[in-house]
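Appendix B, record 7
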Amino acid sequence: NRIILSTGYMHEKVENHFGNRYKDIEIGYARETTPLGTGGGILNALQQCQTETVTVLNGDTMFKVDYAQLEKFHSQHQSPLSVILRQVEDTSRYGSVSIDSSNRISSFAEKADSKGKGWINGGIYQIEKRLFEGFALGESFSFEKDIMQSRYQDQPFYAFPSSAYFIDIGVPEDYARAQEELSDSK
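C-alpha cells (predicted):
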C-alpha cells in the first residue's frame, strides 16, 4: 500500500506523471541529486520506509513473481537478504548465482566468467534495513558488489528460484520485445 520510487535525472517527469498516488497506493520519491549507485540509491529510499523489512525491485525488469510467497520464504529463513533468481539459457549477459541444496547463495560469477544455462539475479529482493549498516547516507556504492558479493559468505543470503515471466529491458532489443509482448497481453 506504499511504494518509494528512486529517481534522479528527469525525476520531474516521473513525479508529474504519477503524483503521490497510484490507485490505492501511496507513492513517495527518493530523489538522487547525484548518482548514488544501486546501493546508495536503495539506502536513500530506505530513509522513507516505515518497516524493517522491505521489498526492493529493479526498475528495468519485469518479473511476475508472487510477493506473498517471497515474504513467507524470507521470514522462514530469517535472512537479512532474499534474492529472487531466474534460470536463463545464457548467463553471460547477467552473471550467475549459485546456490546450495538449502537455497543459500554459495557464489556469484561475473558476466565475463559466466556462460551457459544457469541462475541469474532477477532484481527483486526482500531485505532487512540492518543490511546497510556501515554505509553512509549519500555515499555511492553498489548493492550487488559491496553488499551481496562481499557479504554472502559471512551472512546467510538465500535465493528464491522462480520460473515466472521475466524480461529485462536493459538492452534495446529486449525493450522492443517488451513493447510487443506487453501490448499483446492487454
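Remarks on this record: The mean pLDDT is 93. The chain is about 25% helix and 30% strand.
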